[in-house]
Amino acid sequence: MFNPRPCSNARGRKRQPRFVAVLPDAQGDLWLTGGWNGGLLYANTGSSASPSLTTVPGVQSAYHLGFGKAAPGSSHLTLFLEGVIGGATGLYRSTDAGSTWIQINDAAHQWGGFNAVCGDMRTFGTVYLGTGGGRGIIWGASTN
User: How far from 38 is each of 5, 9, 33, CA to CA, in Å?
Assistant: First the structure.
């Protein structure tokens, strides 16, 4: 029987995870976003039988996470993150499992916030965004 457990932050306050993702082609590859108010990004550094969620360095807040096709020459799927890195809220991309991030939008292009982030699994660099405020779905593509 599945018994959900709330997450606790460092101050002991209860917080439900915002988003949990398990990659279908990589057993034990589990990611969790902590949500608003300082919720961090976590990745499984353990095994599928004995998971161990650890924070991804450099991410101050993680709201939404999506996956897309790996960059040419990379063995890692591309990560797309709505969150805060280096004090800047935005949409970020990582091609090395979260070791480094580049911001792919700017302060003038937040589109009312996001409700969903999803990368294209067939085309590297393409991301789809479910926007807040009734702006619909926005997509963008880059080749680098």
Answer: 19, 9, 10
What is the side-by-side strand order in the sheet with 102-103? 59-68, 78-85, 88-94, 102-103
Q: Who's near 38: CB < 8 A, 6+ residues apart?
A: 9, 60, 61
Tell me the pLDDT tens digit for each residue of 13-46: 444 456 677 666 677 778 888 876 567 888 888 8
Residues 48 and 128: their CA atoms lie apart, in Å, by 29
Q: What is the DSSP letter of 90?
A: E
Overall average pLDDT of the 79-84 stretch: 91
Residue 64 near residue 81 (C-beta atoms within 8 A):
yes
> What is the C-alpha separation between 85 and 74, in angstroms, rounded?
23
CA pair distance 144, 137, nearest whole angstrom? 22
Model pTM score: 0.81
Going along the chain from its start, the domains and CATH numbers come out as 7-141 (2.130.10.10)
